[in-house]
From TrEMBL:
Entries under CDD domains matching the protein: M1_APN_like (cd09604)
Note on how the cofactor is bound: Binds 1 zinc ion per subunit.
Species this protein is from: Caldithrix abyssi
Gene Ontology terms, MF aspect: metallopeptidase activity; zinc ion binding
Residues annotated as domain Peptidase M1 membrane alanine aminopeptidase: 331-536
Active site residues according to the UniProt entry: E380, Y477
UniProt keyword annotation of Zinc present: yes
Protein name per the record: M1 family peptidase
Keywords carried by this UniProt record: Metal-binding, Zinc
Length: 694
């Protein structure tokens, strides 16, 4: 029995061919894969066509075989995991040999049938030779691939599915299959193949491709995958069903299969979610024609677990809002489908991104608003813009994906919910509704987690060269987001949006680098912001400015012996006693010393602002380039100073110590009293709840 899926009418306008301005795909894949649930194996046939779009003569091809990272404990992934001293979900050890995963190329031939088995060699391009690491395979080609030419490989492979690890594998009869097929590295003109080993701290990098994949699974399995499902073939004799998925202009392909998924579909209809006023606003902001900012329909596919069935609407709402805002800000989502997967229990695949497919994360009982599942969906869908469509090198410059994605997620969550509500749980039960007044900005969360890691590593560090996994995560996620929020304040929100929109449109499908991003920032802002990236992305120095001292006193005539035309004049303290002056003539002298406590400094046209406030409600403002260790500012005014503050507009969110930014001549306790009262109020509520439950 064969059922050919006819795509919906709206697909005709979008189709499988997208983005006319996109460069040609470098790779074509035709893959047939069969899932054997009895042996936890994949059996696949792959026709891989690689096009040489460079001017180089290429004599070999490098392939990623990612699942060999789970083959033995000498792989780069497992050995680096062990060296991290077990501070993660992966101990670096295979508990059982059945837990291992691997991929083996049984046969590799050219189109004319010539075998390449003898020309294959495992290599570790960025490591000392590790015989146990087989995640990169080099194949020497019998003929050079000329500029503009291509090579076609016919590959028979089998792969042992690992027990859930690193967002891939199986648990019970549930499967999440990612990084599962032989995949070329990226050939960089004049440099050669960029094809790193699979490291513990790293993710991925691949060229854009045209995928045509057939997946055969047992008939009772529900499947979700990257791309558009164009065909379904049932084999009653074998008890299997084969799904065909197709999509071009993507650089990876992932799929999931399980027996207990509930599958729901919905059309993202921009006409019902976006007003004409919103379109006009963004067309004006980006100086674009109105039609170029309009979004197109997207078929949303949700695979959700039965125990989370009551959250279907919540998942769709978060997905729709993410597609809406990210599309308005960074350009329309160009693919006809988006699949959101509530991943199978204990497959370890929650919160992960793949082209046109993302995994969410939830729990049986969730808060009315919050990061689960809303923020997870926003984060993973945002990846489809940065990891997915811009497609930077995640091995070498992870921040260009993870950091910008974290910033984008935060912006979506602000648009959806405003300030973030503190997530408070009592066991599995969310009780955030009782703490509704305790909210915080995204940058406050980033500050709390990122500042202590600044001096460990620069943000721009190859993933496997970070000090440890904490330095990796905090630098490329939270510290980068904090840096970008600071950049937003220095440039302005509208300019920051234009920067990201321009970066996305300029480098969509083109593998941008940090230097490309800096170029866009300078171009769009009209300012030289290289110093910002030198300090906060390439540097590892703390930024910390503060008020060192504040002295303010009434000006009185000096005491002593002074020369005059009539001779020496003696002014004593006794002679000044009882002397009064009108208030209008009273003057005060104020001396403020501002200090640079950290090593990092501003540059370009950016200055450190100093605000001094006086008792008569007047203020004075000064600016300092911040280059020296300290600077003194003097004021003569009609009233004494009451406080001084550096960076009063809080432009520098990455300032390591905001507490030293201000200095008062008199202590005020109203603020701390107010917060202490709130804290005690909520503590009383919490204790009351605990008493009632117990």
């Amino acid at each position: 029995m064969k059922q050919l899926y006819i795509t919906l009418i709206f697909f005709l306008g979008i189709g499988l061919s997208i983005a006319l301005a996109a460069p040609p795909d470098v790779v074509q894949y035709k893959i047939d894969v069969r899932l054997d649930t009895s042996s936890q194996m994949l059996y696949g046939k792959e026709i891989l066509t690689w096009h040489n779009l460079s001017n180089d003569r290429v004599k070999d091809i490098y392939l990623h075989l990612y699942w060999n990272a789970f083959k033995n404990e000498e792989s780069a992934y497992l050995s680096e995991s062990a060296e991290s001293q077990g501070r993660s979900n992966h101990s670096g050890h295979l508990d059982e040999i059945e837990d291992a995963g691997w991929i083996r190329l049984k046969q590799v031939t050219l189109s004319d049938g010539r075998s390449l088995k003898e020309a294959m060699q495992y290599v570790t391009p960025d490591l000392p030779r590790r015989p146990g690491d087989q995640t990169v395979l080099r194949i020497d080609l019998p003929e050079v691939v000329q500029p503009g030419g291509s090579v076609r490989l016919h590959i028979d492979f089998e792969a042992k599915i690992p027990k859930a690890i690193a967002r891939a594998g199986y648990y019970n009869n549930n499967y999440f299959i990612s990084q599962w097929f032989p995949k070329p590295g990226v050939y960089q003109a004049g440099k050669g193949w960029n094809c790193h080993a699979y490291h513990y701290f790293s993710e991925f990098f691949a060229d854009f491709a045209d995928f045509d994949v057939r997946i055969t699974v047992p008939q009772d399995f529900v499947v979700g995958a990257s791309g558009v499902n164009t065909e379904r073939v049932v084999n009653d004799t074998a008890g299997t069903v084969t799904y065909r998925y197709q999509q071009n202009h993507i650089h990876d392909f992932a799929w999931t299969a399980g027996q207990r998924f509930i599958k729901k579909e919905r059309l993202f209809n921009p006409d019902s979610l976006i007003s004409e006023d919103e379109y006009r606003h963004y067309a004006s902001l980006f100086n674009l024609p109105l039609d170029s900012v309009r979004l197109t329909p997207v078929k949303l596919i949700l695979l959700i677990r039965p125990e989370h069935e009551n959250q279907i609407e919540r998942h769709f709402q978060a997905t729709e809002q993410s597609v809406k805002y990210l599309g308005l800000w960074f350009g329309r989502y160009p693919y006809p489908t988006l699949t959101v997967v509530d991943p199978p229990y204990r497959t370890g695949s929650s919160g992960m991104e793949y082209p046109t497919l993302v995994t969410a994360a939830t729990r049986p009982i969730i808060a009315e608003e919050g990061w689960i599942p809303d923020g997870v969906i926003a984060h993973e869908f945002a990846h489809n813009y940065w990891y997915g469509m811009a497609a930077n090198n995640e091995f070498e410059e992870a921040w260009l994906d993870e950091g910008i994605t974290t910033y984008s997620e935060d912006k979506v969550m602000q648009a959806m919910h405003g300030k973030t509500k503190m997530i408070v749980t009592f066991g599995p039960f969310p009780i955030s509704r009782y703490f509704d007044q305790i909210r915080y900005s995204s940058w406050e969360r980033a500050r709390s987690s990122a500042l202590h890691i600044v001096e460990t590593d620069p943000v721009v560090t190859p993933s496997w060269q970070f000090y440890d996994i904490y330095s990796y995560f905090l630098n490329v996620y939270e510290r980068t987001a904090l840096n970008l929020f600071t950049l937003e304040r220095l440039l302005g929100k509208d300019t920051m949006l234009r920067v990201l929109r321009t970066f996305q449109s300029r480098y969509r499908y083109r593998h941008p680098t940090t230097q490309d991003f800096i170029g866009i920032v300078n171009e769009v802002s009209g300012r030289d912001m290289r110093w910002f990236f030198d300090e906060f992305f390439y540097g590892d120095r703390l930024f910390d400015y503060g008020v060192g001292s504040l002295v303010s006193h009434k000006i009185v005539p000096p005491i002593g012996v002074f020369d005059s035309d009539s001779g020496m004049v003696v002014v004593s303290r006794d002679s000044l006693e009882g002397r009064t002056e009108p208030d209008s003539l009273t003057r005060y002298k104020t001396i403020v010393r501002v200090r640079r406590y950290g090593q990092a400094r501003p540059g370009g046209d950016v200055r450190i602002k100093l605000l001094v406030a006086f008792a008569d409600s007047t203020t004075e403002t000064r600016y300092w380039d911040g280059r020296k260790r300290w600077q003194e500012f003097r004021f003569e005014t009609a009233a004494r100073a009451v406080y001084a503050q550096v960076d009063p507009d809080t432009l520098f969110l990455l300032d390591a110590n905001l507490a030293n930014n201000s200095y008062r001549t008199e202590t005020k306790s109203a603020g701390i009293n107010r917060w202490a009262g709130k804290f005690l109020f909520w503590l009383q509520n919490l204790l009351t709840i605990i008493t009632l439950i117990s």
